[in-house]
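Re-running the complex after MR caught last week's input typo. The corrected sequence lines follow. Everything else is unchanged.
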Amino acid sequence: MINRRFATPLAGILVGSSLLLVQPAAAAPQASQVWPQASQMWPRAEKKPVAEGYGGAVSTVDLDASEVALGVLREGGNAMDAAVAAAATLGVTEPYSAGLAGGGFVVYYDARRKKIHTIDGRETAPKAMGPASLEGIPFEEAVTSGLSAGVPGSVAQWELALRRFGTLSLRQALKPAIEVASKGFKVDQTFYDQTAANAARFKDFTSTAKLYLPGGAPPPVGSTFRNPELADTYRRLGRQGGEWLYGGSLGAEVVATVKKPPVTPGSTRNVRPGLMELPDLKAYRALERPPTKVTYKGMDVYGMAPPSSGGSTVGEALNILEALPKVGEHEYLEASRLSFADRGKYVGDIPNVPLGELLSDGFAKERACLIGERALTSPAAPGNPDGTYGPCAPAPSAEAAPSAPEGPETTHLVVTDRWGNVVAYNITIESTGGNGIVVPGRGFLLNNELTDFTFGPAPGDPNLPAPGKRPRSSMAPTIVLKDGRPLLALGSPGGSTIITTVLQILVNRWDLGMSLPEALAAPRATQRNTAQTQAEQGFIDRYGAELTARGHSLVLNPEIGAATAVEFLRHGKLQAVAEPTRRGGGSALVVSGRR
Ligand code: DON
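Corrected-run output:
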Protein backbone atom coordinates (compact mmCIF):
# COMPACT_ATOMS: atom_id res chain seq x y z
CA MET A 1 0.00 0.00 0.00
CA ILE A 2 2.97 2.33 0.34
CA ASN A 3 4.61 3.05 -2.95
CA ARG A 4 8.12 3.60 -1.78
CA ARG A 5 11.18 2.79 -3.77
CA PHE A 6 14.32 2.06 -1.87
CA ALA A 7 17.22 4.38 -2.49
CA THR A 8 19.45 1.30 -2.29
CA PRO A 9 18.50 -2.18 -3.31
CA LEU A 10 17.28 -4.48 -0.61
CA ALA A 11 20.17 -6.75 -1.38
CA GLY A 12 22.42 -4.05 -0.05
CA ILE A 13 20.56 -3.86 3.20
CA LEU A 14 21.90 -7.17 4.30
CA VAL A 15 25.43 -6.69 3.06
CA GLY A 16 27.91 -6.86 5.84
CA SER A 17 26.36 -9.87 7.45
CA SER A 18 28.67 -12.07 5.38
CA LEU A 19 26.70 -14.86 6.79
CA LEU A 20 26.78 -18.47 5.81
CA LEU A 21 23.19 -19.45 6.17
CA VAL A 22 22.25 -22.80 7.54
CA GLN A 23 18.77 -24.13 7.06
CA PRO A 24 18.12 -26.29 10.11
CA ALA A 25 14.41 -26.71 9.64
CA ALA A 26 14.36 -28.15 6.15
CA ALA A 27 16.44 -29.79 3.48
CA ALA A 28 19.99 -28.53 3.00
CA PRO A 29 20.29 -25.13 1.33
CA GLN A 30 21.47 -24.60 -2.21
CA ALA A 31 24.98 -23.60 -3.12
CA SER A 32 25.49 -19.89 -2.52
CA GLN A 33 24.15 -18.94 0.87
CA VAL A 34 26.29 -15.86 1.44
CA TRP A 35 24.46 -12.56 1.43
CA PRO A 36 24.98 -11.01 -1.98
CA GLN A 37 26.95 -7.87 -2.58
CA ALA A 38 25.17 -4.60 -3.16
CA SER A 39 25.90 -4.83 -6.85
CA GLN A 40 23.80 -7.99 -7.09
CA MET A 41 20.51 -6.14 -7.24
CA TRP A 42 17.35 -7.37 -8.83
CA PRO A 43 14.72 -5.28 -10.58
CA ARG A 44 12.23 -3.49 -8.32
CA ALA A 45 8.96 -5.35 -8.01
CA GLU A 46 5.58 -4.12 -9.12
CA LYS A 47 2.70 -4.06 -6.69
CA LYS A 48 0.25 -6.65 -7.90
CA PRO A 49 -2.22 -8.97 -6.22
CA VAL A 50 -1.34 -12.24 -7.93
CA ALA A 51 2.05 -13.79 -8.71
CA GLU A 52 2.83 -17.30 -9.92
CA GLY A 53 6.17 -19.01 -9.96
CA TYR A 54 8.70 -21.12 -8.12
CA GLY A 55 11.27 -21.20 -5.37
CA GLY A 56 9.30 -19.28 -2.74
CA ALA A 57 6.45 -16.80 -2.53
CA VAL A 58 5.15 -14.03 -0.34
CA SER A 59 1.92 -12.13 0.09
CA THR A 60 1.45 -9.11 2.36
CA VAL A 61 -0.66 -5.96 2.28
CA ASP A 62 2.38 -3.87 1.47
CA LEU A 63 4.91 -3.85 -1.38
CA ASP A 64 7.79 -2.87 0.89
CA ALA A 65 7.18 -5.72 3.30
CA SER A 66 6.75 -8.19 0.43
CA GLU A 67 9.99 -7.00 -1.15
CA VAL A 68 11.84 -7.39 2.12
CA ALA A 69 10.53 -10.94 2.52
CA LEU A 70 11.43 -11.76 -1.07
CA GLY A 71 14.90 -10.29 -0.60
CA VAL A 72 15.51 -12.52 2.43
CA LEU A 73 14.29 -15.57 0.50
CA ARG A 74 16.49 -14.74 -2.47
CA GLU A 75 19.49 -14.35 -0.24
CA GLY A 76 19.02 -17.84 1.16
CA GLY A 77 16.91 -17.12 4.23
CA ASN A 78 13.99 -19.39 4.97
CA ALA A 79 10.29 -18.62 5.33
CA MET A 80 10.53 -17.81 9.03
CA ASP A 81 13.46 -15.43 8.48
CA ALA A 82 11.49 -13.69 5.76
CA ALA A 83 8.29 -13.55 7.83
CA VAL A 84 10.03 -11.89 10.79
CA ALA A 85 11.87 -9.43 8.53
CA ALA A 86 8.59 -8.56 6.81
CA ALA A 87 6.73 -8.19 10.12
CA ALA A 88 9.37 -5.77 11.41
CA THR A 89 9.10 -3.82 8.15
CA LEU A 90 5.33 -3.64 8.50
CA GLY A 91 6.05 -2.05 11.89
CA VAL A 92 7.59 0.81 9.88
CA THR A 93 5.31 1.10 6.86
CA GLU A 94 2.06 -0.12 8.48
CA PRO A 95 2.71 1.21 11.98
CA TYR A 96 -0.98 1.57 12.76
CA SER A 97 -1.58 -2.17 12.26
CA ALA A 98 1.63 -3.84 13.38
CA GLY A 99 4.61 -3.17 15.56
CA LEU A 100 7.11 -4.41 18.07
CA ALA A 101 4.79 -3.46 20.95
CA GLY A 102 1.95 -5.60 19.61
CA GLY A 103 1.31 -9.30 19.36
CA GLY A 104 0.30 -12.01 16.98
CA PHE A 105 0.05 -15.66 16.04
CA VAL A 106 2.21 -17.75 13.73
CA VAL A 107 1.11 -21.03 12.14
CA TYR A 108 4.12 -22.77 10.60
CA TYR A 109 4.62 -25.82 8.41
CA ASP A 110 8.04 -27.38 8.93
CA ALA A 111 8.80 -29.12 5.64
CA ARG A 112 11.59 -31.29 6.94
CA ARG A 113 9.58 -32.73 9.79
CA LYS A 114 6.26 -32.45 7.93
CA LYS A 115 4.75 -30.92 11.01
CA ILE A 116 2.59 -27.92 11.86
CA HIS A 117 3.67 -25.71 14.76
CA THR A 118 2.15 -22.55 16.16
CA ILE A 119 3.64 -19.69 18.15
CA ASP A 120 1.45 -17.62 20.43
CA GLY A 121 2.81 -14.08 20.77
CA ARG A 122 -0.40 -12.71 22.20
CA GLU A 123 -0.20 -9.83 24.68
CA THR A 124 -0.96 -10.51 28.33
CA ALA A 125 -2.83 -8.63 31.03
CA PRO A 126 -0.65 -7.27 33.80
CA LYS A 127 -0.69 -9.02 37.18
CA ALA A 128 -2.70 -6.19 38.69
CA MET A 129 -5.60 -6.65 36.26
CA GLY A 130 -8.66 -8.50 37.53
CA PRO A 131 -12.12 -9.45 36.22
CA ALA A 132 -13.58 -6.06 37.17
CA SER A 133 -10.72 -3.86 35.96
CA LEU A 134 -12.51 -2.87 32.74
CA GLU A 135 -16.04 -2.91 34.11
CA GLY A 136 -18.07 0.21 33.46
CA ILE A 137 -15.37 1.88 31.37
CA PRO A 138 -16.75 3.26 28.11
CA PHE A 139 -15.18 1.25 25.27
CA GLU A 140 -13.99 4.36 23.43
CA GLU A 141 -12.26 5.60 26.56
CA ALA A 142 -10.48 2.27 27.02
CA VAL A 143 -9.29 2.32 23.40
CA THR A 144 -7.09 5.37 23.98
CA SER A 145 -5.60 4.62 27.38
CA GLY A 146 -2.67 3.12 29.21
CA LEU A 147 -5.09 0.63 30.72
CA SER A 148 -5.69 -1.16 27.42
CA ALA A 149 -2.01 -1.76 26.67
CA GLY A 150 -1.15 -5.43 27.00
CA VAL A 151 2.35 -6.71 27.72
CA PRO A 152 3.80 -6.83 24.17
CA GLY A 153 4.39 -10.24 22.61
CA SER A 154 5.90 -9.58 19.19
CA VAL A 155 9.57 -9.31 20.15
CA ALA A 156 9.49 -12.52 22.19
CA GLN A 157 7.63 -14.18 19.33
CA TRP A 158 10.22 -13.05 16.77
CA GLU A 159 13.06 -14.36 18.94
CA LEU A 160 11.36 -17.70 19.52
CA ALA A 161 10.36 -18.04 15.87
CA LEU A 162 13.91 -17.36 14.67
CA ARG A 163 15.50 -19.58 17.30
CA ARG A 164 13.21 -22.54 16.58
CA PHE A 165 12.70 -22.27 12.85
CA GLY A 166 14.84 -19.52 11.35
CA THR A 167 18.47 -19.12 10.36
CA LEU A 168 18.94 -15.41 11.06
CA SER A 169 19.56 -13.66 14.36
CA LEU A 170 17.07 -10.99 15.40
CA ARG A 171 19.73 -8.42 14.57
CA GLN A 172 19.96 -9.68 11.00
CA ALA A 173 16.22 -10.00 10.58
CA LEU A 174 15.72 -6.38 11.68
CA LYS A 175 18.22 -4.95 9.17
CA PRO A 176 15.83 -4.38 6.27
CA ALA A 177 13.29 -2.69 8.55
CA ILE A 178 16.03 -0.43 9.94
CA GLU A 179 16.90 0.55 6.40
CA VAL A 180 13.29 1.33 5.53
CA ALA A 181 12.80 3.34 8.73
CA SER A 182 16.01 5.35 8.13
CA LYS A 183 15.66 5.99 4.42
CA GLY A 184 11.92 6.41 4.54
CA PHE A 185 8.98 5.37 2.41
CA LYS A 186 6.52 7.28 0.26
CA VAL A 187 3.29 8.16 2.03
CA ASP A 188 0.30 6.85 0.10
CA GLN A 189 -3.39 7.60 0.40
CA THR A 190 -4.08 4.79 2.89
CA PHE A 191 -1.32 5.89 5.27
CA TYR A 192 -2.54 9.47 4.98
CA ASP A 193 -6.17 8.47 5.60
CA GLN A 194 -5.30 6.34 8.61
CA THR A 195 -3.24 9.16 10.10
CA ALA A 196 -5.99 11.70 9.44
CA ALA A 197 -8.62 9.42 10.99
CA ASN A 198 -6.48 9.23 14.12
CA ALA A 199 -5.41 12.88 14.20
CA ALA A 200 -7.82 13.89 16.98
CA ARG A 201 -6.28 11.44 19.44
CA PHE A 202 -2.71 11.54 18.09
CA LYS A 203 -2.59 15.26 18.84
CA ASP A 204 -3.46 14.53 22.46
CA PHE A 205 -0.08 12.85 23.02
CA THR A 206 3.10 14.87 22.62
CA SER A 207 5.13 11.89 21.39
CA THR A 208 2.54 10.74 18.85
CA ALA A 209 1.86 14.23 17.50
CA LYS A 210 5.60 14.79 17.07
CA LEU A 211 6.01 11.60 15.05
CA TYR A 212 2.82 11.29 13.02
CA LEU A 213 1.53 14.87 12.83
CA PRO A 214 4.69 16.77 11.86
CA GLY A 215 3.80 20.46 11.64
CA GLY A 216 0.41 19.62 13.16
CA ALA A 217 -0.98 17.62 10.22
CA PRO A 218 -0.69 14.16 8.66
CA PRO A 219 2.28 13.83 6.30
CA PRO A 220 1.04 14.55 2.77
CA VAL A 221 0.58 11.86 0.16
CA GLY A 222 3.78 11.50 -1.85
CA SER A 223 6.07 12.79 0.86
CA THR A 224 8.86 10.61 2.28
CA PHE A 225 8.21 9.46 5.81
CA ARG A 226 11.20 8.57 7.95
CA ASN A 227 11.22 7.14 11.45
CA PRO A 228 14.83 7.43 12.68
CA GLU A 229 13.80 6.80 16.28
CA LEU A 230 12.29 3.45 15.33
CA ALA A 231 15.41 2.66 13.29
CA ASP A 232 17.45 3.32 16.41
CA THR A 233 15.10 1.24 18.56
CA TYR A 234 15.39 -1.71 16.15
CA ARG A 235 19.17 -1.28 16.05
CA ARG A 236 19.46 -1.45 19.82
CA LEU A 237 16.95 -4.29 19.99
CA GLY A 238 19.12 -6.19 17.53
CA ARG A 239 22.20 -5.54 19.64
CA GLN A 240 20.71 -6.10 23.09
CA GLY A 241 18.00 -8.63 22.28
CA GLY A 242 14.53 -8.96 23.76
CA GLU A 243 15.84 -8.53 27.29
CA TRP A 244 16.06 -4.82 26.59
CA LEU A 245 12.25 -4.84 26.47
CA TYR A 246 11.45 -7.72 28.80
CA GLY A 247 12.83 -6.23 32.00
CA GLY A 248 15.46 -3.84 30.66
CA SER A 249 15.46 -0.09 30.15
CA LEU A 250 13.20 -0.15 27.08
CA GLY A 251 10.70 -2.06 29.20
CA ALA A 252 11.00 0.62 31.89
CA GLU A 253 10.20 3.27 29.27
CA VAL A 254 7.15 1.31 28.11
CA VAL A 255 5.93 0.99 31.71
CA ALA A 256 6.48 4.68 32.38
CA THR A 257 4.51 5.58 29.24
CA VAL A 258 1.65 3.25 30.11
CA LYS A 259 1.44 4.53 33.69
CA LYS A 260 1.80 8.19 32.80
CA PRO A 261 0.86 8.71 29.16
CA PRO A 262 2.47 11.83 27.66
CA VAL A 263 -0.77 13.79 27.37
CA THR A 264 -0.48 17.09 25.51
CA PRO A 265 -0.88 20.05 27.89
CA GLY A 266 -4.39 21.44 27.53
CA SER A 267 -5.91 18.20 26.23
CA THR A 268 -9.26 17.39 27.80
CA ARG A 269 -9.11 13.66 27.03
CA ASN A 270 -9.57 11.36 30.02
CA VAL A 271 -6.57 9.09 29.54
CA ARG A 272 -6.68 6.26 32.04
CA PRO A 273 -3.28 5.07 33.25
CA GLY A 274 -2.31 1.41 32.88
CA LEU A 275 -1.45 -1.27 35.39
CA MET A 276 1.68 -2.67 33.70
CA GLU A 277 4.87 -3.04 35.76
CA LEU A 278 8.37 -4.18 34.83
CA PRO A 279 7.87 -7.67 36.37
CA ASP A 280 4.94 -8.15 33.95
CA LEU A 281 7.37 -7.65 31.08
CA LYS A 282 9.95 -9.93 32.71
CA ALA A 283 7.33 -12.66 33.04
CA TYR A 284 6.23 -12.55 29.39
CA ARG A 285 6.78 -15.65 27.27
CA ALA A 286 5.87 -16.44 23.68
CA LEU A 287 4.48 -19.96 23.66
CA GLU A 288 4.42 -22.89 21.29
CA ARG A 289 0.99 -24.49 21.28
CA PRO A 290 -0.50 -27.47 19.47
CA PRO A 291 -2.52 -26.30 16.44
CA THR A 292 -6.22 -26.90 15.97
CA LYS A 293 -7.01 -29.41 13.24
CA VAL A 294 -10.13 -30.41 11.37
CA THR A 295 -10.44 -32.49 8.25
CA TYR A 296 -12.67 -30.91 5.63
CA LYS A 297 -13.48 -32.91 2.53
CA GLY A 298 -10.16 -34.72 2.66
CA MET A 299 -8.07 -31.67 3.54
CA ASP A 300 -6.42 -31.09 6.90
CA VAL A 301 -7.08 -27.54 8.06
CA TYR A 302 -4.72 -26.31 10.79
CA GLY A 303 -5.29 -23.16 12.80
CA MET A 304 -4.53 -21.26 15.97
CA ALA A 305 -5.75 -22.64 19.28
CA PRO A 306 -6.85 -20.53 22.28
CA PRO A 307 -6.25 -17.84 23.28
CA SER A 308 -7.32 -17.32 19.70
CA SER A 309 -10.79 -18.36 18.73
CA GLY A 310 -9.67 -18.42 15.10
CA GLY A 311 -8.82 -22.10 14.73
CA SER A 312 -11.72 -23.43 16.78
CA THR A 313 -14.38 -21.26 15.16
CA VAL A 314 -13.22 -21.72 11.55
CA GLY A 315 -12.81 -25.44 12.31
CA GLU A 316 -16.23 -25.88 13.89
CA ALA A 317 -17.92 -24.05 11.02
CA LEU A 318 -16.15 -26.27 8.47
CA ASN A 319 -17.27 -29.38 10.35
CA ILE A 320 -20.85 -28.09 10.36
CA LEU A 321 -20.68 -27.41 6.63
CA GLU A 322 -19.33 -30.88 5.98
CA ALA A 323 -22.35 -32.32 7.78
CA LEU A 324 -24.77 -30.53 5.43
CA PRO A 325 -25.99 -31.95 2.11
CA LYS A 326 -24.96 -28.82 0.23
CA VAL A 327 -22.91 -25.70 0.79
CA GLY A 328 -23.87 -22.27 -0.49
CA GLU A 329 -24.06 -18.71 0.86
CA HIS A 330 -26.99 -19.52 3.20
CA GLU A 331 -25.19 -22.51 4.72
CA TYR A 332 -21.95 -20.53 5.09
CA LEU A 333 -23.76 -17.83 7.07
CA GLU A 334 -25.63 -20.32 9.25
CA ALA A 335 -22.58 -22.42 10.09
CA SER A 336 -20.77 -19.26 11.07
CA ARG A 337 -23.71 -18.06 13.20
CA LEU A 338 -23.74 -21.29 15.24
CA SER A 339 -19.97 -21.45 15.61
CA PHE A 340 -19.90 -17.90 16.94
CA ALA A 341 -22.55 -18.84 19.53
CA ASP A 342 -20.20 -21.58 20.78
CA ARG A 343 -17.13 -19.34 20.58
CA GLY A 344 -18.79 -16.80 22.89
CA LYS A 345 -19.64 -19.35 25.55
CA TYR A 346 -16.65 -21.66 25.53
CA VAL A 347 -13.51 -20.04 24.12
CA GLY A 348 -11.02 -17.85 25.93
CA ASP A 349 -7.63 -18.08 27.59
CA ILE A 350 -8.92 -20.53 30.20
CA PRO A 351 -7.73 -24.03 31.02
CA ASN A 352 -10.95 -25.89 30.26
CA VAL A 353 -11.90 -24.92 26.70
CA PRO A 354 -13.65 -28.07 25.35
CA LEU A 355 -11.61 -27.85 22.19
CA GLY A 356 -11.77 -31.52 21.25
CA GLU A 357 -15.55 -31.57 21.52
CA LEU A 358 -16.02 -28.22 19.77
CA LEU A 359 -14.07 -29.68 16.86
CA SER A 360 -15.70 -33.10 16.92
CA ASP A 361 -17.85 -34.44 14.11
CA GLY A 362 -20.53 -35.47 16.63
CA PHE A 363 -20.94 -31.95 17.91
CA ALA A 364 -20.89 -30.56 14.37
CA LYS A 365 -23.69 -32.92 13.30
CA GLU A 366 -25.81 -31.88 16.28
CA ARG A 367 -25.28 -28.23 15.39
CA ALA A 368 -25.75 -28.77 11.65
CA CYS A 369 -29.19 -30.26 12.06
CA LEU A 370 -30.42 -26.88 13.33
CA ILE A 371 -29.80 -25.44 9.88
CA GLY A 372 -32.83 -25.45 7.62
CA GLU A 373 -34.21 -23.57 4.66
CA ARG A 374 -34.75 -20.39 6.68
CA ALA A 375 -32.19 -18.35 8.58
CA LEU A 376 -31.96 -19.00 12.32
CA THR A 377 -32.79 -16.18 14.67
CA SER A 378 -29.80 -14.58 16.35
CA PRO A 379 -28.63 -14.65 18.97
CA ALA A 380 -28.66 -18.43 18.58
CA ALA A 381 -27.92 -20.30 21.79
CA PRO A 382 -24.63 -22.12 22.21
CA GLY A 383 -24.69 -25.90 21.90
CA ASN A 384 -23.52 -28.41 24.45
CA PRO A 385 -20.15 -29.92 23.48
CA ASP A 386 -20.32 -32.62 26.16
CA GLY A 387 -19.42 -35.68 24.12
CA THR A 388 -22.99 -37.01 24.01
CA TYR A 389 -24.73 -36.11 20.82
CA GLY A 390 -28.18 -36.97 19.61
CA PRO A 391 -30.72 -35.75 17.13
CA CYS A 392 -31.00 -32.01 17.38
CA ALA A 393 -33.55 -30.26 19.50
CA PRO A 394 -34.58 -26.70 18.66
CA ALA A 395 -32.13 -24.49 20.51
CA PRO A 396 -33.51 -21.80 22.80
CA SER A 397 -32.37 -18.32 21.86
CA ALA A 398 -29.63 -16.77 23.93
CA GLU A 399 -28.96 -13.28 25.19
CA ALA A 400 -28.20 -10.77 22.50
CA ALA A 401 -24.57 -10.77 21.43
CA PRO A 402 -23.10 -7.34 20.76
CA SER A 403 -22.27 -6.60 17.14
CA ALA A 404 -19.18 -4.48 17.41
CA PRO A 405 -18.13 -2.80 14.19
CA GLU A 406 -14.85 -4.27 12.97
CA GLY A 407 -12.36 -2.44 10.79
CA PRO A 408 -9.56 -3.78 8.62
CA GLU A 409 -6.83 -3.06 11.18
CA THR A 410 -4.21 -5.67 11.90
CA THR A 411 -2.41 -7.48 9.14
CA HIS A 412 -1.61 -10.94 7.84
CA LEU A 413 1.25 -12.25 5.74
CA VAL A 414 2.11 -15.56 4.12
CA VAL A 415 5.59 -16.72 3.13
CA THR A 416 6.84 -20.00 1.70
CA ASP A 417 10.42 -20.85 0.79
CA ARG A 418 12.30 -23.10 -1.63
CA TRP A 419 12.37 -25.90 0.95
CA GLY A 420 8.61 -25.91 1.29
CA ASN A 421 8.36 -24.33 4.76
CA VAL A 422 5.25 -22.17 5.13
CA VAL A 423 4.42 -19.29 7.50
CA ALA A 424 0.96 -17.80 8.03
CA TYR A 425 1.35 -14.86 10.40
CA ASN A 426 -1.25 -12.51 11.88
CA ILE A 427 0.16 -9.38 13.57
CA THR A 428 -1.71 -6.64 15.37
CA ILE A 429 -1.68 -3.69 17.75
CA GLU A 430 -5.53 -4.04 17.80
CA SER A 431 -7.13 -0.69 16.77
CA THR A 432 -5.75 1.28 13.82
CA GLY A 433 -3.06 3.17 15.70
CA GLY A 434 -3.23 0.89 18.78
CA ASN A 435 -3.85 2.96 21.91
CA GLY A 436 -2.61 6.08 20.10
CA ILE A 437 0.41 6.49 22.37
CA VAL A 438 3.98 6.48 20.99
CA VAL A 439 6.68 5.65 23.53
CA PRO A 440 8.60 8.97 23.63
CA GLY A 441 11.76 8.89 21.56
CA ARG A 442 11.29 5.26 20.49
CA GLY A 443 9.17 5.60 17.34
CA PHE A 444 6.53 2.94 18.01
CA LEU A 445 2.92 2.87 19.17
CA LEU A 446 1.60 0.81 22.06
CA ASN A 447 -1.15 -1.76 21.55
CA ASN A 448 -4.65 -1.60 23.01
CA GLU A 449 -5.18 -5.36 22.84
CA LEU A 450 -6.74 -5.60 26.30
CA THR A 451 -9.93 -4.11 24.82
CA ASP A 452 -10.41 -7.61 23.35
CA PHE A 453 -11.37 -8.79 26.84
CA THR A 454 -15.04 -8.84 27.83
CA PHE A 455 -15.50 -5.70 29.89
CA GLY A 456 -18.22 -7.23 32.09
CA PRO A 457 -19.97 -7.64 34.34
CA ALA A 458 -20.41 -11.04 32.68
CA PRO A 459 -20.32 -13.88 35.20
CA GLY A 460 -18.96 -17.08 33.66
CA ASP A 461 -17.67 -15.38 30.53
CA PRO A 462 -14.45 -17.15 29.47
CA ASN A 463 -12.94 -13.88 28.29
CA LEU A 464 -12.99 -11.73 31.41
CA PRO A 465 -9.61 -10.20 32.33
CA ALA A 466 -7.37 -11.90 34.89
CA PRO A 467 -3.71 -11.50 35.89
CA GLY A 468 -1.41 -12.66 33.10
CA LYS A 469 -4.36 -13.74 30.94
CA ARG A 470 -4.36 -13.28 27.17
CA PRO A 471 -7.42 -11.63 25.66
CA ARG A 472 -9.40 -13.85 23.31
CA SER A 473 -8.40 -13.21 19.74
CA SER A 474 -10.10 -13.89 16.42
CA MET A 475 -6.87 -14.07 14.46
CA ALA A 476 -6.90 -17.12 12.22
CA PRO A 477 -3.67 -17.80 10.36
CA THR A 478 -4.49 -21.06 8.59
CA ILE A 479 -2.52 -23.73 6.74
CA VAL A 480 -4.26 -26.48 4.76
CA LEU A 481 -2.49 -29.75 3.97
CA LYS A 482 -3.63 -32.43 1.57
CA ASP A 483 -2.01 -35.86 1.79
CA GLY A 484 0.47 -34.32 4.20
CA ARG A 485 1.61 -31.62 1.77
CA PRO A 486 0.84 -27.88 1.85
CA LEU A 487 -2.09 -26.91 -0.31
CA LEU A 488 -3.07 -23.47 0.91
CA ALA A 489 -2.07 -20.89 3.51
CA LEU A 490 -4.20 -17.86 4.30
CA GLY A 491 -5.35 -15.27 6.79
CA SER A 492 -6.74 -11.76 7.17
CA PRO A 493 -7.17 -8.79 9.51
CA GLY A 494 -10.60 -7.57 10.62
CA GLY A 495 -11.24 -8.45 14.27
CA SER A 496 -13.91 -11.13 14.53
CA THR A 497 -14.56 -10.83 10.78
CA ILE A 498 -11.15 -12.51 10.36
CA ILE A 499 -12.86 -15.80 11.13
CA THR A 500 -15.61 -15.34 8.57
CA THR A 501 -13.19 -14.03 5.94
CA VAL A 502 -10.98 -17.11 6.26
CA LEU A 503 -14.03 -19.37 6.27
CA GLN A 504 -15.58 -17.66 3.27
CA ILE A 505 -12.38 -17.88 1.24
CA LEU A 506 -12.15 -21.61 1.98
CA VAL A 507 -15.81 -22.09 0.99
CA ASN A 508 -15.33 -19.99 -2.16
CA ARG A 509 -12.28 -22.02 -3.11
CA TRP A 510 -13.37 -25.54 -2.23
CA ASP A 511 -17.18 -25.50 -2.43
CA LEU A 512 -18.05 -22.76 -4.88
CA GLY A 513 -15.39 -23.63 -7.44
CA MET A 514 -13.51 -20.32 -7.47
CA SER A 515 -9.79 -20.00 -8.11
CA LEU A 516 -7.82 -18.54 -5.19
CA PRO A 517 -7.64 -15.03 -6.73
CA GLU A 518 -11.41 -15.17 -7.31
CA ALA A 519 -11.98 -16.49 -3.80
CA LEU A 520 -10.15 -13.48 -2.30
CA ALA A 521 -11.68 -10.91 -4.60
CA ALA A 522 -15.28 -12.15 -4.21
CA PRO A 523 -17.62 -9.91 -2.20
CA ARG A 524 -17.80 -10.85 1.47
CA ALA A 525 -20.44 -11.21 4.16
CA THR A 526 -20.01 -11.83 7.87
CA GLN A 527 -22.50 -13.46 10.24
CA ARG A 528 -21.29 -13.59 13.85
CA ASN A 529 -24.48 -14.57 15.68
CA THR A 530 -25.93 -11.11 15.36
CA ALA A 531 -29.40 -10.13 14.19
CA GLN A 532 -28.05 -8.63 10.99
CA THR A 533 -25.48 -10.02 8.60
CA GLN A 534 -22.96 -7.44 7.47
CA ALA A 535 -22.15 -7.67 3.78
CA GLU A 536 -20.24 -5.80 1.11
CA GLN A 537 -22.29 -4.16 -1.62
CA GLY A 538 -21.30 -6.75 -4.22
CA PHE A 539 -22.57 -9.54 -1.98
CA ILE A 540 -25.85 -7.75 -1.37
CA ASP A 541 -26.28 -7.16 -5.10
CA ARG A 542 -25.61 -10.78 -5.96
CA TYR A 543 -27.26 -12.72 -3.16
CA GLY A 544 -29.35 -10.16 -1.21
CA ALA A 545 -32.77 -10.97 -2.67
CA GLU A 546 -32.44 -14.73 -2.27
CA LEU A 547 -31.03 -14.53 1.24
CA THR A 548 -33.60 -11.97 2.37
CA ALA A 549 -36.35 -14.29 1.15
CA ARG A 550 -34.85 -16.96 3.41
CA GLY A 551 -34.99 -14.70 6.46
CA HIS A 552 -31.53 -13.11 6.48
CA SER A 553 -31.22 -9.41 7.17
CA LEU A 554 -28.27 -7.89 5.32
CA VAL A 555 -26.68 -4.58 6.22
CA LEU A 556 -23.87 -2.86 4.35
CA ASN A 557 -20.27 -3.13 5.56
CA PRO A 558 -18.23 -1.41 2.82
CA GLU A 559 -15.10 -3.51 3.23
CA ILE A 560 -14.48 -6.76 5.10
CA GLY A 561 -10.94 -8.06 5.64
CA ALA A 562 -7.67 -7.73 3.72
CA ALA A 563 -6.58 -11.30 3.09
CA THR A 564 -3.29 -12.76 1.94
CA ALA A 565 -2.80 -16.34 0.73
CA VAL A 566 -0.61 -18.79 -1.13
CA GLU A 567 -1.75 -21.89 -3.00
CA PHE A 568 0.56 -24.76 -3.87
CA LEU A 569 -0.27 -25.70 -7.43
CA ARG A 570 1.03 -28.72 -9.31
CA HIS A 571 4.68 -29.46 -10.06
CA GLY A 572 6.02 -27.04 -7.47
CA LYS A 573 4.24 -23.99 -8.86
CA LEU A 574 3.17 -21.38 -6.31
CA GLN A 575 0.34 -18.90 -6.57
CA ALA A 576 0.68 -15.95 -4.18
CA VAL A 577 -2.50 -13.89 -3.81
CA ALA A 578 -3.34 -10.60 -2.12
CA GLU A 579 -6.34 -8.29 -2.24
CA PRO A 580 -6.90 -6.66 -5.63
CA THR A 581 -8.59 -3.56 -4.15
CA ARG A 582 -9.52 -3.80 -0.45
CA ARG A 583 -7.32 -1.56 1.75
CA GLY A 584 -5.55 -0.24 -1.31
CA GLY A 585 -4.63 -3.72 -2.60
CA GLY A 586 -1.84 -6.01 -1.46
CA SER A 587 1.43 -7.29 -2.88
CA ALA A 588 2.10 -10.86 -4.05
CA LEU A 589 5.59 -11.85 -5.20
CA VAL A 590 7.40 -15.04 -6.17
CA VAL A 591 11.12 -15.75 -6.11
CA SER A 592 11.24 -16.84 -9.73
CA GLY A 593 8.86 -16.94 -12.65
CA ARG A 594 10.61 -20.04 -13.96
CA ARG A 595 11.40 -23.40 -12.45
O1 DON B 1 -6.97 -10.37 18.12
C1 DON B 1 -7.93 -9.94 17.52
O2 DON B 1 -8.80 -10.64 17.06
C2 DON B 1 -7.99 -8.46 17.25
N1 DON B 1 -7.34 -7.72 18.28
C3 DON B 1 -7.38 -8.21 15.92
C4 DON B 1 -7.51 -6.77 15.59
C5 DON B 1 -8.09 -6.54 14.30
O3 DON B 1 -8.16 -7.36 13.44
C6 DON B 1 -8.59 -5.18 14.17
N2 DON B 1 -9.92 -5.22 13.72
N3 DON B 1 -10.86 -4.73 14.00
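None of the earlier attempt is carried over here. Residues 406-407, 409-410, 428, 430, 449, 452, 473-475, 493-495, 498 surround 6-diazenyl-5-OXO-L-norleucine (CB under 6 Å). Residues 1-13, 15-42 have pLDDT under 50 and may be disordered.
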